[in-house]
Amino acid sequence: MMPALVASDLDRTLIYSAAALALTMPDARAPRLLCVEVHESRPLSYLTETAAQLLTDLGDAAVFVPTTTRTRKQYQRINLPGPEPRYAICANGGHLLVDGVSDADWHAQVTARLADQCAPLAEVQEHLLRAADPVWVRKHRVADDLFAYLVVERELLPEDWVKELAVWAENRGWTVSLQGRKIYAVPKPLTKSAAMREVARRTGADLTLAAGDSLLDADLLLAADRGWRPGHGELADTGFTAPSIRALPERGVLAGERILTEFLGAVRGA
């Protein structure tokens, strides 16, 4: 049998910061948590212990591909339970890791496509520096020389600023996504779906499954045979849906547990 491929976003889909856990139940009923990321000696990201077992089972049953907008360095801080994934998609598809090493040919193809189809990163970075107000911007960052993002104080962010940035970016072949405290500006051709298709080609997968919560995951969900989104995030806020995509009611870390349950059920039922 051909393997099933599971390409899943990580942050706020499978793993959660303390602020994103959404533990709304009484304390005594809160799930036991496993820390899967430490940064500068501080615990940063979690999933439930039940999700950890589900992810281990999934890694044994399918080709599990972590699929993230994180840079390679940020991704490598994560210590997921289960078998070490052979493939990982980082920088929103800009890097395809094979056994932990970026595939040079894939990266060259991506950078050539970006140079041909959209405005250069320097132009976008300059606009962000000029248009963003230091009152609510905490950090300006460039990720793997592929895209840019801001870390902001959400409560101070003007209501229409992101919409105005999205209009400006659209005319230059870029897209904008607001995720938690981060505002991403990403070239449109830089997609998770293209990298997922490449992994499916290499592995011969005949079933592709995906999950994600943000606008940067929309192309991934639409490209997969079946997709899931949690009850929180940009996709939920905009009511994003399609015949092959299931909107789940769970929010926070319990959504990650539910997504893994759905993945495993689909793989075992294939």
TrEMBL record:
GO molecular function annotations of the record: hydrolase activity
Gene3D superfamilies the UniProt entry points to: HAD superfamily/HAD-like
InterPro entries: HAD-like_sf (IPR036412), HAD_sf (IPR023214), TPP-like (IPR024197)
Keyword set, alphabetical order: Hydrolase
Name of the protein: Hydrolase
